[in-house]
Automatic annotation (TrEMBL):
GO terms for biological process: DNA repair. It is an enzyme of class 3 (hydrolase). One of its GO terms (molecular function) is phosphoglycolate phosphatase activity. This is Phosphoglycolate phosphatase. Keywords: Carbohydrate metabolism, Hydrolase, Magnesium, Metal-binding. GO terms for cellular component: cytosol. Its EC number is 3.1.3.18. It comes from Acidithiobacillus ferrivorans. It holds the Pfam family HAD_2.
């Protein structure tokens, strides 16, 4: 017989960050930045250089690819160009991280709802999710522009939980960035750090205040199956 989720009775929802947690979007994000470089006669950068900042979106990728900061006069037009290119190639190489399809299916099979809370803008989030053909649809999707404030503010998480009709005390937030832990803690959820995500050098999940660190995405389903003993 299949193993049943031994989730704490009060756990009813799991919220995922998107880029670097649920979905490996770095190849498409990196390709957009490199297309901009090659259009300007620059050589493409190895994905290994761009991957660690993929969770930071246009800001991180433009910083690494062009040494641009938000206060630079060229940043706004370059950001617009980056987003236009990325939107046109939103899901050519992006995939769920290994084990994530099984995790989502397992959660659903045991009556645990799930949702997405991301700082990615909605005009990118929704087409990406549609193209991925998820095995189980999310019960709530909150993008970076769905609420007045984005993570690390807790508002997107409280908004997602309101859409799900579940309290923070019954919920778990999983993400690959300190802002995910900060938002979850402020909202009152438990928080797990996704150490398989996009981590810049020196950005150590042990310093994020997470309740638990999961090293590999393939380990997540098992960790949830043994939630009682994992706290």
């Amino acid at each position: 017989m299949p193993e049943k989720l031994s989730l704490m009775p009060e756990l009813a929802a799991v919220l995922f960050d998107l880029d670097g947690t649920l979905v490996d979007t770095a190849p498409d994000l990196g390709a957009a930045a490199n297309r901009m470089r090659t259009d300007r006669g620059l050589s493409a950068l190895p994905l290994e250089i761009l991957r660690p900042v993929a969770s930071q979106g246009a800001q991180g990728l433009l910083r690494v690819a062009f040494h641009l900061q938000p206060e630079d006069p060229d940043f706004a037009p370059m950001r617009a160009e980056f987003l236009e290119i990325y939107a046109a190639h939103i899901c050519e190489q992006s995939t769920l991280f290994p084990g994530m399809a099984a995790t989502l299916t397992s959660l659903s099979a045991h009556g645990v709802v799930w949702g997405i809370v991301t700082n990615k803008p909605g005009f990118l989030t929704l087409p990406l999710l549609s193209a991925l053909k998820l095995p189980v649809p999310p019960g709530a999707v909150v993008s970076g522009d769905s609420t007045a404030r984005a993570k690390p503010d807790p508002l997107p998480i409280t908004h997602a939980l309101a859409k799900l009709g579940i309290s923070a005390a019954q919920s778990l937030m999983i993400g690959d960035d300190p802002r995910d832990m900060a938002a979850g803690k402020a909202a009152g959820t438990r928080c797990w750090a996704a150490a398989w995500g996009y981590l810049e050098a020196g950005n150590d999940p042990r310093h994020w205040g997470a309740d638990q660190i999961i090293q590999r995405s393939e380990q997540l389903e098992f960790a949830l199956l043994h939630f009682n003993t994992a706290q």
